[in-house]
Design a protein that fits this description.
This protein is mainly α. About 65% of the residues lie in helices and about 0% in strands. It contains 5 helices and no strands. α1 packs across α5 and α3 runs antiparallel to α5.
Length: about 100
Amino acid sequence: MNGRIVKLLALALFATATAAGAQDRQAQVWAASCAACHGTHGNSNSAIPSIAGQDKQALLAKLKAYKNDQLSATVMHQHAKGYTDTELERLADFFSRQKR
């Protein structure tokens, strides 16, 4: 490979990593509002369930069910309706990667 191709590939990898990092930071910002009830990084110290380390697909299914009024809760349906499905997926991914 010539040097120019290597530089372009390196730049593409850096841009992808930077975009992924920015998305993760955005999900972390959104997740901060969840801390009031579910604890820091989803680790609850109360009767409200911890969501850290749960299966991503299970979390996403619950979030979508709250959003679509298929699962009732005191406030979760209101929170979930404030996010797009893609944003809910990113939140589910974030919490699934947190340590319990």
